[in-house]
Amino acid sequence: MIGRQTDATFEGWARYAIYAVPPAESALFALGSEWLLGPDRPAFAALGLSDAQIQPLVRTPARYGFHGTLKSPFRLAEGATVEALDMAIAAFAAARSPVAAPQLRITTDNGFVALRCGGPSPELNARAFEIVQAFDGFRAPLSDEDRARRKPETLDERGRELLELWGYPWVQERFHFHFTLSSWTPQQEAERLAAQLAPIFAPTLTDPFLLEEIALFGIRKEGAAFKILSRHRFSGA
User: Fold this and answer.
1) Domain range holding 57?
2) Is the dihedral of CA 66, 68, 124, 235 positive or negative?
3) Measured in whole angstroms, how far is the alpha carbon of residue 156 from the centre of its chain?
4) CA distance 133 to 33
5) Given pLDDT bands bounded at 50, 70 and 90, which one contains residue 30?
6) In angstroms, what CA-CA distances link 140 with 68, 118, 213?
7) Residue 8 is part of a domain; what is its CATH number?
């Protein structure tokens, strides 16, 4: 299934990414997008926070939109086209069925609040790495700027190896699926925010998580926001 945003074309984007997204009509996508993107957040009125207070909490994840990383942002390889990439994603999704995973829950990790699966999710992890591999031919080799963005000096030897192999260090055994909900904050503040957000998100998290769609995202220039260019639903048997 392929569907383009009415306000976005496939031209003029500097980098692309392939992300997991809940269906556009789902309560989870609506709530996650409201929290990250605002500016009106009626579902979060109980927090007692103004828009000016929330913005710093979500500034970093808001640039990417409500998503789970599968294939991290990359520049197109020489000779590759975004139209060909989009067609390849469409074919990939059409040939595969959705993937079920444990129910999502609000967690904190090193100062970040996120939605993570409440238990092991080997099928989801396998699908994620399949996506990393399947579309790597569309990725340009890392530039010095790309490499510096990942702060290789903070990675261990395996992290640097994965970065060079796949353009991103958090793949294969280092992959942990999540939807980021906050910028970094001190851990105590992250835990307080997680406790406040948990009852608001709870009605959207009553069932096991189902990875039903992936989306092609694009960013025009550094510092700008990523936009959804197309969505593709897993529709295979």
Assistant:
1) 3-233
2) positive
3) 23
4) 28
5) very high
6) 22, 35, 25
7) 3.90.1140.10
